[in-house]
Amino acid sequence: KIESVNNQFSAVNSSLDLVLDRISKLSQQIAETKAKVEILDQPQQSSQGAPGPAKAGPPSPEELYNTAYGDFLKGSYDLSRQGFEEYLKSYPDTELSDNAQYWIGESYYVQRKFSDAIKAFDKVLQSYPKGDKVAAAQLKKAYSLLESKNTEAGIRVLKLLIATYPGSDSAQLAKDRLNSLGVPVTEKAAPAKHPPRR
To answer: Cα separation of 72 and 69, whole Å?
Structure first.
């Protein structure tokens, strides 16, 4: 029976890894599409203006973001992180600023630098509380805590995520992870002082 349970647990973990991989790829595709849409919405400045002044100032938000995101997709995580950090210094309050901060966290997470990842995901939660990356950042913060063997804190963050964003994809992944840890999932896990922030 124990062997059977272990086999089932391994199968669940494998399935969860596949789902997480798919979610990560979907997130990347959404961010890429968003960046492309933003480029299409911008007037073609490079063809209208002289190249001299354009080179004197910082690169456009689209150039910076797309370059950093391209580096992430290629696996150049340090370079990607540097690009996203430069983006946030030059453009701290755009539609993609929360995404840039999120991908900084992802780059640390992929490199298994979980302490740095937690700090980066916390910045998403603190600096962009109404952004569309909050639930995903909370999920990855929880994963980072679990990977750092800080299981109790990781479970707390997963439960808070489920209570705060119950209908989100991230909440479903949080439930799956709690189930794989053998932790009972309740919708009212978070205290009342944490209302949903939309």
So the answer is: 5
